[in-house]
Specification:
Distance between the termini of chain A: 15 Å
Number of helices of chain C: 3
Radius of gyration of chain A: 24 Å
Radius of gyration of chain C: 15 Å
Order of helices and strands of chain A: EHEEHHHHHHHHHHH
Strand order of the largest sheet of chain A: 2-3
Helix content of chain C: over 70%
CATH class of chain A: Mainly Alpha
Shape of chain A: globular
CATH superfamily of chain A: MetI-like
Distance between the termini of chain C: 40 Å
Oligomer: heterotrimer
Structural class of chain C: mainly alpha
Strand content of chain A: under 5%
CATH architecture of chain A: Orthogonal Bundle
Largest interface: A-B, 99 and 99 residues
Largest sheet of chain C: none
Chains: A mainly alpha, B mainly alpha, C mainly alpha
Number of domains of chain C: 2
Order of helices and strands of chain C: HHH
Largest sheet of chain A: 2 strands, antiparallel
Number of strands of chain A: 3
Strand content of chain C: under 5%
Number of helices of chain A: 12
CATH topology of chain A: MetI-like fold
Helix content of chain A: over 70%
Structural class of chain A: mainly alpha
């Protein structure tokens, strides 16, 4: 679509700009201010330069939780994306079963995050939970509150349960947008179902998959509530992720300076990753426009 | 092929529903039964857990608080996002792409980063522990997404419609409200759904910005952990009640959800 | 505004960034820029190059601070040179 150049459009964007500036720019500036000072209370703050950054970057606790965070986000994506595509391919396309499966799939997305934690806490405990009980009765020693491997597995399983639906629903809507003619042509060519997936469905899913990966990466990167409720970050520090480390520092120990410096680094990483994704998306869109204009 | 598909989707649905069933199962049991042993359905069916919630104002006010700020958030989001999305979908202007990207980065920003300054900011303007504070804070995440979704839906409406309306002598306001909005009603539905979703499920900010008057249900649920251990039955019942609004919302937008999840972009 | 805990260095930092953005906006209105391709692998506008420059400078500072013992002012000088060359040839 050809857009018209018109700077008056700024008036339409102004409310959003002001609203978001109020709740994003002012806090961000404040965090930067905090990060260069040693703060005891409102009236006792001392300028320390970039000392906190230096300290935070060499703090093994933070390096650990950063490494853990990347590993977690990576694993989550590796499981949820393929599984989500599979589920989307299996979903019925019409009739009441289609509506029903949509509602069932969307259900985990609408549960408050702490309740998700609670559900899995209840479900996975070895004494009162179905999952824990069944696994233990199979002869496997499982207890997510004392074994860090079990805790990891439980948090991962919870995330898969919670968020695979998002990928599945995104892909489902991508699949619905493929015209029937493509499938008919494939049928005439006697294409195998793998070939249909590889050459018709997957290319059409590209756009939604990037959005899905972006949302999943970001949300798993800032995960806080679910593991907080389920494991409290334990046992030990095995399921303590970035946000939790940060919250503990800022509110638990009131180390505002280091917490702020750490926030800035956290934010820069997020900014870099979302920029990479956003550039990819816009360039894909541009290629698509080019293709269409060649037709 | 279709048979395998059906088995696949049924087993995945079972995986989704089983933990939820377990929660519902718990909510109808007494605490003695829960800790006493495992049973697949309540042996001694009881409404006592729900009674605790419905008779104690500090419990049910939590639900009102949550619903209140979620609705407020959806309304604010729609009011500011609609014109902005229209601008992004129809016009080029100085800094448009960067503004759009900047909005999106806020959706990606970890709430933990903003926790402390938010608390300070809302305290300093006297909004601490009010519903509007939580609604505004949640706007930081819901507005960017809303603009993104609505922009997708609006771009699908041909420009000719706008131009014809102006030639016919409609004013911008009249055109926008009477002619344009009905065309993207499904987009609006989906936007409300997403604002609801992200505001309803968020706890970290909501808990930090409230203490008594606007305390959300999710924060009140932590009360069940007392000196004598966890009150599993009431916790489960409170959890079940938080799922119900979600089911209602998804039921109303079920026909548009597929399109909306692609952010209007397929 | 007391709670925002302003300091002189951060105030200078933000006013620099702010004035760069204002200047870029004025420049854009006076003479709108066309996307072009320099040594970066993607075609960019002036604003894109500014953003890439600022973000990479931030990471350069962090790297210098965390993993080397080089003076931070050197990183700043390097960043300014990098930013300018990016604006010109990027």
């Amino acid at each position: 679509m050809n857009k018209v150049q018109n700077n008056k459009a700024w008036w339409l964007v102004l409310p959003v700009f002001l609203l978001v500036a109020f709740s994003a720019v002012i806090p961000l500036m404040t965090v930067v201010n905090y990060s260069v000072q040693d703060i005891f209370d409102q009236n006792n703050a001392y300028f320390v330069g970039l000392e906190w950054y230096q300290e935070v970057l060499s703090d093994p606790r933070l390096q650990d939780s950063l490494a853990r965070q990347f590993m977690y986000s990576g694993t989550v994506l590796l499981i949820e994306v393929p599984l989500g595509i599979c589920v989307a391919l299996m979903m019925p396309t019409r009739g009441w079963t289609a509506s029903l499966s949509l509602i069932v799939l969307a259900l985990p997305l609408l549960i408050p995050w702490n309740v998700v934690g609670t559900i899995w806490q209840i479900f996975a405990r070895s004494d009162i939970g179905l999952l824990g009980y069944v696994i233990n009765n199979l002869g496997i020693d499982y207890n997510y509150t004392s074994n860090s491997v079990d805790a990891w597995a439980t948090v991962l399983l919870m995330d898969v349960w919670h968020w695979t639906s998002l990928i599945a629903l995104l892909c489902y809507s991508g699949l619905r947008a493929i015209p029937d003619a493509y499938y008919q042509a494939a049928r005439i060519d006697r294409a195998s179902s793998w070939a249909i997936f590889r050459f018709i469905q997957l290319p059409k899913l590209q756009g939604v998959l990037i959005i899905g990966v972006l949302l999943r990466f970001m949300d798993s990167f800032m995960i806080y509530t679910e593991p907080f409720v389920l494991t409290g970050g334990g046992p030990g520090n095995s399921t303590t992720f970035l946000s939790q480390t940060l919250t503990k520092m800022a509110i638990g120990q009131f180390d505002i300076g280091p917490a702020a410096a750490f926030s800035i680094i956290y934010f820069l990483i997020v900014l870099l990753v979302s920029w990479l994704f956003f550039t990819t998306i816009t360039h894909l869109d541009k290629d698509k426009v080019k293709e269409q204009s060649h037709d | 092929m279709t048979r395998n598909k059906r088995i696949g989707i049924i087993s995945y649905s079972a995986f989704v529903l089983l933990p939820i069933y377990w929660l519902i199962n718990m909510s109808f049991k007494s605490n003695e039964e829960i800790t006493g042993g495992l049973s697949l359905w309540p042996q001694d069916f009881t409404f006592a857990n729900y009674q605790v919630i419905f008779t104690d104002p500090s419990w049910y006010n939590g639900y009102f608080n949550s619903v209140y700020y979620v609705v407020l958030n959806s309304i604010i989001t729609l009011i500011v996002a609609l014109p902005a999305a229209y601008a992004f979908s129809r016009y080029k202007f100085v800094g448009d792409k960067h503004l759009f990207f900047w909005l999106l980065t806020n959706r990606m920003a970890p709430p933990a980063v903003f926790l402390l300054p938010f608390f300070q900011l809302y305290s300093s303007v006297g909004l601490f522990d009010t519903h509007i504070a939580v609604a505004l804070a949640h706007c930081l995440f819901s507005v960017p997404l809303a603009v993104w979704i609505l922009e997708g839906f609006m771009s699908a409406v041909p420009r000719e419609i706008d131009e014809t309306a102006y030639i016919d002598g409609y004013s911008f306001g009249h055109f926008f409200i009477r002619l344009f909005l009905p065309l993207i009603s499904s987009g609006i539905g989906v936007t409300v759904f997403f604002s609801f979703m992200f505001s309803w499920v968020e706890l970290l900010l909501a808990r930090t910005l409230t203490s008594v008057n606007a305390k959300p249900i999710a924060a009140i649920m932590t009360r069940t952990i007392g000196a004598s251990g966890v009150d599993w039955g009431v916790l489960a019942a409170a959890g079940v009640l938080t799922i119900i609004p979600g089911i209602l919302v998804i039921y109303f937008v079920r026909n548009h959800v597929a399109k909306g999840f692609a952010l209007g972009r397929v | 505004m007391n709670w925002m805990a302003w300091t002189l260095p951060t105030a200078i930092f933000f006013s620099t960034i702010g004035s760069i953005i204002v200047m870029m906006t004025v420049w854009e209105i006076k003479s709108p820029c066309i996307e072009r391709k320099g040594f970066l692998p993607i075609s960019t506008t002036r604003g894109d190059r500014l953003f890439i420059g600022l973000l990479s400078s931030a990471f350069l500072h962090l790297f210098t601070l965390g993993f080397t013992s080089v003076n931070i002012w050197l990183a700043l000088i390097a960043s300014v040179i990098w930013l300018l060359s990016l604006m010109r040839w990027g």
